[in-house]
């Protein structure tokens, strides 16, 4: 049964984080932030919603980077139960997809809890001051990618960057629930 993200408390400031990534580096909020903002995508390896979204997420991450917005993926799932989400599998997925953004491991699940993430893929879009301006989906795709779907995440972040406009219409993310530790 899919999980839908709740309504966002827009304007909240991004919480600090320090997490290891599949590229062997450790990232903080400051090292992740782009000139015009940051998108954090809670994602994982096994979720069919994430698997179908990856091509569009990669496309949009590259386009966002062109306008000064960086993207980071975070996997917060309990890998002791969902072994496909273990760190070594994250490395393999990042390499196989040639992810153009850091793929971070939130082993303690503290970052997901702090941000209030509930599902994968779930996007948090922050402006240049790291204030939350978008929370929701990449696009309308679900378990199958829709090649001509409106690019909700990209269009929202572009409007925030170019016009300082927070999109009035924000669509919740829908996907697999984050797999919390007992």
Automatic annotation (TrEMBL):
Name recorded for this polypeptide: Thiol-disulfide oxidoreductase
Signal sequence coordinates: none
Species this chain originates from: Caballeronia cordobensis
Thioredoxin domain segment(s): 8-165
Any one GO molecular-function label of the UniProt entry: oxidoreductase activity
């Amino acid at each position: 049964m899919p999980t839908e993200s709740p309504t966002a408390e827009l304007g909240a400031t991004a919480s600090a984080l320090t997490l290891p990534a599949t590229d062997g580096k450790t990232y903080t909020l400051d090292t992740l932030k782009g000139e015009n903002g940051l998108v954090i995508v809670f994602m994982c390896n096994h979720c069919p919603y994430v698997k179908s979204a990856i091509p569009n997420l990669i496309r949009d991450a590259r386009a966002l980077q062109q306008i000064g917005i960086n993207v980071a993926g975070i996997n917060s799932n309990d890998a002791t139960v969902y072994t496909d989400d273990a760190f070594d599998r994250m490395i393999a997925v990042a390499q196989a997809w040639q992810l153009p953004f850091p793929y971070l491991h939130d082993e303690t699940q503290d970052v997901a809890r702090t941000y209030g993430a509930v599902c994968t893929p779930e996007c948090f879009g922050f402006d240049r001051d790291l204030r939350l301006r978008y929370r929701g989906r990449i696009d309308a795709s679900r378990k199958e990618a829709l090649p001509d779907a409106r690019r909700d995440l990209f269009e929202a972040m572009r409007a925030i960057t170019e016009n300082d406009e927070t999109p009035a219409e924000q669509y919740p993310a829908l996907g697999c629930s984050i797999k919390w530790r007992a």
